[in-house]
Design goal:
8 helices, globular, Metallo-beta-lactamase, Chain A
């Protein structure tokens, strides 16, 4: 088993009502969230989780967003280009996870079958999250449910935020980290004492199915080694500046 490192690449940040992250709680409180792409290094090939966000598209939908850095610059800070990435794993196919996908012209794209099927015919209530301009012309390799794609990487089917969401478990020599396919903050997995006495996690606020989102978040918490759950949106960014490239070593 290879010694892996996970490098966060922060792309965009927003200030959102915390109730969007913690279902039916914390109304009126603002929370800073950061959208990341994640590099899994130390394998024979470079693997990326998700493919960036478009601030332009987010703003056009009324979603507050500020660019931290371009994905191109984020990769360059790690000594990489788009052509160096050979596999991109999509946690789901929302616009803020696939905006730069077509720039990875040498990569294989992995997504859950259920997610791709939904993205091609989305429900009207969430159709704006799946813009054709980002999906058109992309070729995907699909998986159906849980699968281990290498000794170091497992894909976990974690629906709820979207119908076919998945999370990425990275197995190292000492511990397992899980890159969450749900939009979460640290409090999702580490509720305050008054909440943790009732339930071990908080249901993510942005979901297509609240019960699935709860079950998936609980699964992520149980799958990762303590203190090794990595979230796709977090109010406590692992990389506070666009030049910071230190990773989580497993």
């Amino acid at each position: 088993m290879a010694n892996c490192a996970i490098y966060p690449i922060p792309i965009v940040e927003s200030s959102l009502d915390k109730s969007l992250m913690t279902y039916r709680m914390n109304f009126g409180q603002q929370v800073r969230t950061v959208g990341y792409v994640w590099l899994i290094d130390g394998l024979t090939q470079k693997v990326l989780v998700d493919a960036g966000a478009s601030v332009r598209y987010s703003l056009s939908r009324g979603i507050p967003a500020t660019q931290i850095q371009s994905l191109e610059n984020g990769l360059a800070n790690l000594g990489l280009t788009f052509g160096d990435i050979r596999t991109v794993i999509f946690t789901h196919l929302h616009h803020d996870h696939i905006a730069e996908a077509r720039r990875f012209n040498r990569a294989t794209f992995l997504v859950q079958k259920a997610e791709l099927e939904f993205a091609r015919k989305p429900h009207p209530s969430v159709a704006a999250a799946y813009p054709e301009e980002f999906l058109k012309g992309l070729d995907f390799d699909t998986v159906d449910g849980d699968i281990r794609i290498s000794e170091e990487i497992s894909l976990l089917f974690t629906p709820g935020h979207s119908p076919g969401g998945q999370s990425v478990a990275v197995h190292g020599g000492r511990r397992t980290a899980v890159i969450s396919g749900l939009c979460t903050i640290r409090e999702t997995f580490e509720p305050p004492p008054q909440i943790s006495q009732v339930m071990p996690i908080i249901t993510p606020g942005m979901h297509t199915n609240a019960l699935e989102a709860y079950d998936s978040a609980l699964r992520i918490k149980q799958a990762g080694t303590s203190s090794s759950r990595i979230t796709t949106l977090t109010s406590n960014p692992m990389a506070g500046s666009c030049c910071k490239t230190d990773g989580t070593f497993l």
